[in-house]
Amino acid sequence: MSDARTPRAWRLPGLFLATLDGITALANVLGSLLILALVGLIAADVAGRNFFGAPFSGVPEILSLSIVAIVFLQAPEALRAGRFTRSDGVLELLRQRAPRFTDALETLFDLTGVFVLGAILYAHWPILARSWTRGDFVGAVGDFTAPTWPAKALLALGAALLALQFTARILRRFGAADDPL
Fold first, then answer.
1. pLDDT of 29-53, one tens digit each?
2. d(CA 67, CA 31)
3. Are 113 and 163 in contact (CB under 8 A)?
4. Using an 8 Å Cβ cutoff, are 148 and 138 in contact?
5. Domain count of the chain?
């Protein structure tokens, strides 16, 4: 419970969760826009091949970079909305008989998610930094090249948001979001 004199905007857990959910929604929209751009690019490539005998250079490279970025941009929203892939039949059965134990299991799942994503970020950060400083690219010089760092940065952003959404699930589970902004 917060003091009536405390401004609503200073209620840190609620503000954190609302901000995180907004950023997560934006990342999801960015992932969706990337999908639309890829559909347009593939359609243009197919049209170029069929009508002009000239495909667009770099389409496979752009696709390979974008798919991983899209997954990591959209996974946090899937988790937040409860659409993350999992089998919860046993959990629902347990929830009816032992709700506290089920909350503990779910919290363990969420903490494992935070740990795994932390490990991914820890391992990925030097790769991202090296890609940025060296100017790594995909493609063939003289035909098509694209830098790899934007896709690697989007992967890092998505992994960080996913780790934060796992943390947000724990906060929500134990009532930190009971007082909405």
1. 999 999 999 999 999 999 999 999 9
2. 9
3. yes
4. yes
5. 1
Angle at 159 between CA 113 and CA 26, to 5 degrees: 120
Domain residues for the domain of 23 are 9-173
* Angle, alpha carbons 157-43-131 (nearest 5°): 30
The pLDDT of residue 17? 93
Least confident of 7-16, 79-88, 95-104, 152-161: 7-16
* Cβ–Cβ under 8 Å, residues 50 and 41: no
Task: Say which amino acid occupies 137.
Answer: F
Query: Cβ contacts of residue 124 below 8 Å, gap of 6+?
Result: 152, 155, 156, 159
Candidates 81, 168, 83, 66; CA nearest to 117 is 168
| Cα 130–chain centre separation | 22
Query: Alpha helix (H) ranges present in the chain?
Result: 12-47, 59-80, 89-97, 99-134, 149-173
Q: Is residue 181 part of a domain?
A: no
For residue 94, is it within any domain? yes
Kindly report which listed range (153-157, 159-163, 175-179) carries the lowest average pLDDT score.
175-179
Signed CA dihedral, 151, 32, 165, 20: sign only: positive
Per the domain annotation, does 40 fall within a domain?
yes
